[in-house]
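thought: fold this chain, then report.
action: predict
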Amino acid sequence: MTVYFIGAGPGAADLVTVRAQRIIAASPVCLYAGSLVPQELLAECPEGARVIDTARLSLDEIVALLIEADTAGQDVARLHSGDPSIFSAVAEQVRRLEAAGVAYTVVPGVPAFTAAAASLGRELTVPGVSQSIVLTRVSTLSTAMPEGEDLRSLGRSGATMVVHLGAHRIDQIVEELTENYGRDCPAAVVAFASRPDEIVLRGTLATIADQVKAAGVTKTAVVIVGKVLAAEGFPDSYLYSATRERTTH
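observation:
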């Protein structure tokens, strides 16, 4: 039997892969990450499935349920918001399953930052402007950042900066990024990306904090900072250039 760690996407029930939908529909046990997973997606669970909200469970309790299902010969759809590879808390579950000899598979999903970029109508890697994206977060009392991964250090590259889980610390984000990006650098915040209650805020590092506070955005948001958000006059990509030699194979 297998535990499937599934990326349930940023919020819209139809922003999941066909593979994820198929696995959910066939799994007799489903564990999902509270309000972050849309109820419409849970409706895909088969009739009689055991569906459990893990929002109030500890790590040990969650893993015990996964092992229990495996022992009973049942596949498990373990739903996480966004994509399991980014800020998902999958690593510690996987570590325990490996120690217990439980098989698992990871099914990728749509991460929140790509849904946010789609809502903004912007590519985050624009020729001649930025070809790199930094995915990061800010330090909190519960989880400190490793040495050298503070926003000031990461911002020295000038790459497109994507900050997860940090809307409640927007003043800190602005202060730490302004040093390298400048007050006039374009900035945006997208909360609840792809959902009906989505909030999209656009501005600069000088104005975005006030917008975030006025909108009451404190969580489930992505902060994006970089010149790509207002890029104009950039060169066309070589990908579709008329000068590029093409073959028929």
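thought: worth noting. The first helix runs from residue 18 to 26.
final: tokens above.
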